């Protein structure tokens, strides 16, 4: 991103009185203020301005630009230009000096979008994608789909894909194979839990990944089952972040029986597709536990026969 100079009008005015050193003479034509005769006067160098015009008896009087002002080219203007000010979501990259205006760049977390001539927040890579290249003041985040064996369960402009954890050794078995948006889920057959308790691990990422619209999300939160039979209070004023916080709090405290009801809650709230996918995940966990932990002496709670 080039310098973002904000004082457009003064620059235009200056252009009427400035000259490139390599293309035009270092003088300008004027008239002697006393005799009125034509006279050739020296221009003032960058960092100065014309304090007093020349005459047939004296040269041009150039003075240094005061603090907070500048001239970038040879000129014969009567005052220096005021230093620019960085706009919204910008910071100073190079301070203003007598012979150059300040240069601005987008502040951390933002990049310059030429199309809109403004700084925009770096894009966050959604669950299932990781950061291939972090955003800079000039470029947006570059995302990539997580490859086999890796995942990302968050929406982030900083995190890359992470390898799935291993379920081998220490008596662990794979309860649910990881995907691009959630980790492997492991189970210990010697300390077996209800399949819904293993599903619990991926539920926060499930709701982020499926990006359910806020109206349905509110209905889901309202319909969440609880041990006392009461539903969540009114949540019409809650934003998406607050709704996810309520969901995560419920997920952490819900019983296995309540979690098993969650697919039907999603369906009844109008998110039937998400409900069906969650139900398939739960059935996969139950089936995997039944296969991997068959023959164990412990009771397999709620795992279908």
TrEMBL record:
Residue ranges constituting the TNFR-Cys domain according to the UniProt record: 64-104, 105-143
First and last residues of every TNFR-Cys repeat: 64-104, 105-143
Record key words, sorted: Apoptosis, Disulfide bond, Glycoprotein, Repeat, Secreted, Signal
Signal peptide extent: 1-23
Origin: domain of life: Eukaryota
Covalent S-S links between cysteines: 65-80, 83-96, 86-104, 125-143
Pfam family, one: TNFR_c6
GO annotation (BP), single: apoptotic process
GO cellular component: extracellular region
InterPro entries associated with the record: Death_3_fish, TNFR/NGFR_Cys_rich_reg, TNFRSF_decoy_receptor
Compartment annotation: Secreted
Cross-referenced SMART domains: TNFR
Matches recorded under PANTHER family: TUMOR NECROSIS FACTOR RECEPTOR SUPERFAMILY MEMBER, TUMOR NECROSIS FACTOR RECEPTOR SUPERFAMILY MEMBER 6B
Name used for this protein in its record: TNFR-Cys domain-containing protein
Species: Astatotilapia calliptera (Eastern happy)
């Amino acid at each position: 991103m080039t310098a973002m100079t904000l004082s457009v009008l003064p620059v235009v005015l200056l252009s009427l009185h400035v000259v490139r050193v390599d293309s035009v003479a270092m003088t300008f034509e004027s008239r002697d203020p006393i005799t009125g005769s034509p006279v050739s006067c020296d221009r003032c160098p960058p960092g100065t301005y014309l304090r007093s015009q020349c005459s047939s008896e004296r040269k041009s009087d150039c003075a240094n630009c005061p603090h907070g002002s500048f001239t970038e080219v040879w000129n014969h203007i009567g005052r220096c230009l005021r230093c620019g000010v960085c706009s919204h979501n910008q910071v100073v990259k190079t301070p203003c000096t007598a012979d150059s205006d300040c240069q601005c760049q987008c502040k951390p977390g933002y990049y310059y979008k030429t199309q809109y001539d403004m700084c925009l927040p770096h894009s966050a890579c959604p669950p299932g994608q990781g950061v291939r290249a972090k955003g800079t003041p000039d470029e947006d985040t570059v995302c990539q789909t997580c490859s086999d064996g890796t995942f990302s369960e968050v929406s982030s402009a900083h995190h890359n894909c992470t390898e799935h954890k291993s379920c081998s050794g220490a008596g662990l078995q794979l309860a649910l194979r990881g995907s691009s948006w959630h980790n492997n889920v492991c189970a210990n057959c010697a300390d077996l839990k209800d399949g819904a308790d293993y599903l619990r691990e991926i539920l926060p990422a499930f709701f982020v990944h499926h990006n359910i619209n806020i109206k349905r999300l509110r209905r889901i939160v309202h319909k969440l089952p609880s041990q006392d039979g009461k539903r969540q209070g009114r949540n019409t004023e809650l934003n998406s972040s607050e709704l996810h916080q309520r969901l995560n709090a419920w997920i952490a405290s819900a019983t296995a029986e309540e979690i098993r009801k969650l697919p039907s809650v999603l369906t009844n709230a109008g998110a039937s597709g998400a409900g069906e996918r969650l139900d398939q995940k739960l059935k996969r966990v139950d089936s995997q536990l039944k296969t991997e932990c068959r023959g164990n002496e412990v009771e397999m709670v709620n795992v279908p026969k």
